[in-house]
Each structure stands twice: as structure tokens, then as C-alpha cells.
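Sequence in, structure out.
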Amino acid sequence: MTREELRSLVRTVPDFPIAGIQFRDITTLIADSRGLASAVAHLADLASPDVAAVAGIEARGFIFGAALAMQLGTGFIPVRKAGKLPVETISEDYALEYGAATIEIDPTLVPQGGRVLLVDDLIATGGTALAAASLLRRAGGLVDTALFVIDLPELGGAAALRSAGVAADAVMEFAGH
């Protein structure tokens, strides 16, 4: 499928979660088998061939990240919300628009000095992705690239990642937020 065909599979929900927001609902894309396979193929085309592992951000980053890891022949590292992993973890706090959150990883899963590709479904302000990149780097991974299915460029997340030394790319963009 072309990128434009994939774009047509993303549902826009107006005024969610608050008035004025145009929520880009990717569940309609992942419910379409051809769309899901094509989105993963487009991500694979953007990926470097020397990736040692793929890290996906909870929750929809797990869908795309795990599928991409399988396609690239690498392992998958889940970047989880706090308190979800049953082993010793390292964590990273980050700011949200109205508060704060924490993500965690099992550091033993990160290949020391290996290139870790960060993946999520959507990049908006970049707070979660920046925290994930920092966390993976602290665990010993080389994080220099992040891939997304959707970029909302007006919110500046991809630019923030680039400023932190992480190249960011997406399969498609949507104007607004």
C-alpha cells in the first residue's frame, strides 16, 4: 500500500480527549491486515540494516515494534509504564502536559553498545520518546534513530528528538493536533 493509502486508514476523532484536539486513531489501520503489514514494511524500509534490537514504547509501540523486530531479525525491548515489569528495572521520569509519568526497562535486555531502534505509533511533543531514548542510552544502548507511523510535526516532537541526537522519521504526517 502507498503511504497515502495507509493515511486513509487512520481515523480522525475530533475533540478527543479535549475540545480542539484532532485525535489520530491508529486502531483502524492495525485492524486492516494489509494496512498493518504495509505500515511495518514502510518502517522496515526506513530502518538501518545494522540494528541490534528494536525498542517499542507502551502500548501501540509494542504492536509496531515487535512486528518490525521480527521483520528485521532482532529482539524486542518493551519500554513499559512504571510497575509493569517483574524484574529489577531502571526508570526515567518525564513531563506530561498536566503532570508527570515514568517509564521503565529491564536493562539486561539492552545490547551493550548495540544500535537500538526506538519505535512508536505516533510522535507528538516527543516527551515519551525523549525519555525512552535517554533510558535506553543509560542502559548501554546506542540510540540514534526513532521511527514512527505518524508524525504531528506542528507539535515539535521529531525536532526535539533530532536536537537530542536522535534522527526521527515517520511513515506519514498529519497537520494539526
